[in-house]
Amino acid sequence: MADVLHVTSEVVPFSKTGGLADVSAALPEALSRRGHKVAVVTPLYRKVNAARHGIRPTALRFPVTLGGRTCDFAVHEAALPEGTAVYFLACDEWFGRDELYGTRDGDYPDNYLRFAFFAAAAFRLMRALRRRPDVIHSHDWQAGLVPMFNQLNHLELSGTVLTIHNLAYQGLFPAQVMPEVGLPWDCFRAYGGVEFWGRVSFLKAGMVHADAVTTVSPTYAREVCTRQGGVGMDGVLRALGDRFSGILNGADYGAWEPSTDALLPSQYSAADMAGKAICRDRLLADFGLPEPNGPLFGVVGRLTSQKGHDLLAGCLDDLVAAGGSLVVLGTGERAVEESFRAAAGRHPGRVSLRVAYDEPLAHIVEAGADFFLMPSRFEPCGLNQIYSMRYGTLPVVHATGGLEDTVRDVDEEPGRGTGLKFRAFDRASLAWAIRRARDLWDDKARYLEIQRRAMAEDFSWEASARAYEALYERVAR
Ligand code: ADP
Ligand code: GLC
To answer: Quick check: CB of 362 below 6 Å from ligand 1?
Structure first.
């Protein structure tokens, strides 16, 4: 049994901008179920609804000093649904804002201070709790300084793991911030240091100081070690050798399971699919679309170039020509939003866009659509394609990262397929996948057989939790 502390900048149900939040709750809970002593530490943002989630203040308060500046932190606590403890670090100066990382107009300019103080406060919290975890597991650049502070502190050393959920977010700041975040200049080195092309990278700081580094699928782990996929960090990752590996995320079927999903107008299962048709009607009504003659495609996600939504927006005429209709739920980059809006204008009654972050509606899209589109340019793991399989909504994906690892193509692997993949990232390939989806949908018996197979896929957290457990054994001190 290991004592493990997760340090993460978002956790469902308290705060979320993407899949990191899902993983930051589901993995600790899976580890707790396996008998480990697990806690999570995260910021108390202003938008976290303390009353709704039973978050209580504790008597713990402490000052944290970094680079000559001192800020007071208060500790609040709550528990995840299965009982894992969550500690919230409250500091109005850093977290009393409307958003987690920034607004549509850009990141908060002092994010380096916000998350350096967060990392330092996580250590201070352990001292206050008199707890020295066997392993501190940090997630993404926001917790990237944690493995480094662990070494600089070297009084009470824990083993450290850093998980990279997305290598594109590197926590890059001007070199001048070094003293402000309490980092000595001798750490500012290209090899084995925090320097990255003249700037400081919080993510690299974590990568070079952690005992083990992981990312969230085996294929993405291979891709980021290449020049094309490495976003400049491939050399750093290759140098880690066997300290770097890919562990596939799981899905939380407690929240994403059509037979128990209370957010659906009707539950259903592979044995009785009647409820899925009810969800489809609801979805069409919610998006103001008439009954289509062809398949209904759904999209949920951050509207960013990572997700390939620009490619999809350029392909909507093909989708409509193939008889399809499309609903899109997402928030993100204005340009991507505009191109979907323009397509919706060109194809009234066939394409509908909702710019919102709406959890209940996300469930209805997963359940009500016939196919779920994820044409991601790159995808570290991706959770929506895993959820959509469980809902019998066949994923249409670009064969990259975690999408490659979780979806089997119906034509490449006859008798085993669970979705459709395209390999070249271009309009013709996506349009071809969409046409294959339409043909599959027309063949109702085959479509139903594949739906049932996809629904039977099991990506529950147990296997991934076991893989992390083995890693913890290697690094624990
Ligand atoms: P990423 O973390 O890169 O955004 P993932 O597929 O791992 O992608 O996870 C995305 C998560 O965020 C899913 O749980 C998805 O349902 C949710 N999500 C993304 N955008 C929205 C939205 N506009 N409304 C509701 N949920 C959303
Ligand atoms: C990131 C990735 C996504 C992954 C999620 C959880 O946001 O973009 O692919 O599923 O983290 O690990």
So the answer is: yes
- Residue 167 contacts residue 173 (beta carbons within 8 Å): no
- Is the four-CA dihedral 374, 379, 381, 382 of positive or negative sign? negative
Shared fold status for 3-250+461-475 and 274-455? yes
Q: What is the predicted pLDDT for the residue at 129? A: 95
54, 76 contact by CB (below 8 A): no
Using the mean position of ligand 2's atoms as its centre, give its distance from the Cα of residue 231 in Å: 16
CA–CA separation, 230 vs 122, rounded Å?
29
Confidence of residue 155 (pLDDT cuts 50, 70, 90): low
- For the segment 296-307, the average pLDDT, to the nearest whole number, is 94
Distance 69 CA to ligand 2 centre (A): 34
CA nearest to 434, candidates 369, 477, 371, 391: 371
Q: Is the Cβ atom of 20 under 6 angstroms away from ligand 2?
A: yes
For residue 374, which ligand has an atom nearest its CA? 1
The 3-state secondary structure of 404-452 reads: HHHCCECCCCCCCCCEEEECCCCHHHHHHHHHHHHHHHHCHHHHHHHHH
Average pLDDT over residues 386-410: 98
List, in order, residues 6 or more apart from 67 with CB less than 8 Å away.
179, 180, 181, 182
Within 10 angstroms of residue 255's Cβ, the number of other Cβ atoms is 19
For residue 380, the ligand 2 atom closest to its alpha carbon is 9
Q: Identify which ligand lies nearest to the alpha carbon of 165.
A: 2
Q: Which CATH superfamily is domain 3-250+461-475 in?
A: Glycogen Phosphorylase B; (3.40.50.2000)
CA 208 – CA 211 distance, rounded (Å): 8
Of 68, 18, 306, 314, the C-alpha closest to 168 is 306
Tell me how far the alpha carbon of residue 62 lies from the centroid of ligand 2, in angstroms.
33
Pick the CATH number of 274-455 from 3.40.50.2000, 2.102.10.10, 3.30.420.10, 3.40.50.140: 3.40.50.2000
Mean pLDDT for 56-63 is: 98
Model confidence band, residue 151 (pLDDT cutoffs 50, 70, 90)? confident
Helix (H, G, I), strand (E, B) or coil at 254: coil
Please state the domain extents for the chain: 3-250+461-475, 274-455
> Ligand 1 in contact with 358 (CB < 6 A)?
yes
How many of the other CB atoms lie within 10 Å of CB of 165?
21
Kindly give the number of the ligand 1 atom that is closest to the alpha carbon of 359. Answer: 25
- Cα gap 397→418, rounded to integer Å: 11
Element (H or E) spanning 388, and its range?
helix 384-390
pLDDT confidence band for 466 (50 / 70 / 90): very high
